[in-house]
Amino acid sequence: MAATDLVDRFGRVVRDLRISVTDRCNFRCTYCMPAEGLQWLPREEVLSFEEITRLARLLVERYGVDSIRLTGGEPTVRANLTTLVASLATLRTDDGPIDLAMTTNGATLGLIAGDLRDAGLRRVNISLDTLRRDRFEEMTRRDSLTRVLDGIAAAQAAGFDPVKINTVVQRDVNDDEIVELAEFGRDNGLEVRFIEWMPLDASGGWAGDAVVGQDEIVARIAAVHPLEQVAARGAAPADRWRYLDGRGTVGVIPSVTKPFCGDCDRIRLTADGQLRTCLFATDEFDLRAAMRRGETDDQLGERIERAVGTKWAGHRINQVDFVRPSRSMSQIGG
Ligand code: SF4
């Protein structure tokens, strides 16, 4: 049966599903959660692999979603993750296998990169906000820089390509390392994507003047390593540049200063089975309860279509009426 597109009121077609497989994490990043962590979801409230795969299959086969990204919390803290990867990797649209990716803090990749690759994972994005061991411990409350660097090397050795690095930039925290991190990417065949800090931290400490915007990030890099912009990004979140000397590319995700909601093709599934049409959505749709009370795929499909029909034009971070979502980033998934 040919897929029918999931189209919102603004004509945007959903193609990208972000699945949070857990709200738990083995790090305590200061821009994400408090040192003591958060109130974790009780296990029975977390979707099972069967429930995740059922919803993913419905979205892929019935609605043509062709890209799935696994997120968390930290996805690799979910036990037997390769089992879920293997089942999702079998999903195909009319045009072929889905693009199955994962965003991780990389701390355990040294152990499981090969298994994830063999299970069918195709791409990984690894979070790395500093190359300085002391600062790493300060920012994540874990002395794990070496493990993350080993994880990056293990991902490349396992054949993931490209391996992308996600770096959240905060003024007066790690913005003095922008060029250093860009050079880390140049020297190791990695694409570093600098992410503007978004108001999704659990402690509510986000401030607009701590955001280092895309123009400033690019200007700092280009002053040392001349760049040229790569053609338009389409629905992808990152704007990209290539180094004029041919040493790769670099990206910026300008969620705050240059929102890209007009091309957004993403929806999200939280670890407890709530469908979110936007990272900053203030409402969500309970697919877990619907599944557990025995709804059919047709009924679930109608729910998803209704939900997508309510998707707003975009986040309102820079607007006076901006309301932070009640969930923090680790409870939504990147
Ligand atoms: S903020 Fe929401 S609408 Fe905008 S790009 Fe992100 S998920 Fe899409």
The CATH class turns out to be: Alpha Beta
- Ions and ligands: iron/sulfur cluster
Per DSSP, the total helix count is 9
Number of strands: 14
Model regions low in confidence, pLDDT < 50 over at least 5 residues? none
- Spatial gap, N to C terminus: 31 Å
User: What's the mean pLDDT score?
Assistant: 96
CATH architecture: Alpha-Beta Barrel
Number of domains: 1
Strand order of the largest sheet: 9-10-11-8-7-6-5-2-1-12-13-14
**What do we call the CATH homologous superfamily?**
Aldolase class I
List the helices and strands in order: EHEHEEEHEHHEHEHEEEEEEHH
Helix content: 25-40%
Outline: globular
Describe this structure in words.
This protein is an alpha/beta fold. The protein is built from nine helices and 14 strands. The strands form two sheets. It has a twelve-stranded mixed β-sheet. The chain starts with 15 loop residues before the first strand and ends in a 25-residue tail after the last helix. The mean pLDDT is 96. Iron/sulfur cluster (SF4) binds next to loops. Iron/sulfur cluster binds next to loops.
Secondary-structure map with pairings?
Layout: E1 16-20, H1 49-63, E2 67-71, H2 81-88, E3 92-93, E4 96-97, E5 99-104, H3 109-119, E6 123-127, H4 133-140, H5 145-157, E7 163-169, H6 178-188, E8 191-196, H7 214-222, E9 227-229, E10 239-243, E11 249-253, E12 266-269, E13 274-276, E14 285-286, H8 287-292, H9 297-309
Parallel strand pairs: 1-2, 1-12, 2-5, 5-6, 6-7, 7-8, 8-11
Antiparallel strand pairs: 3-4, 9-10, 10-11, 12-13, 13-14
Helix pairs in contact: 1-2, 2-3, 3-5
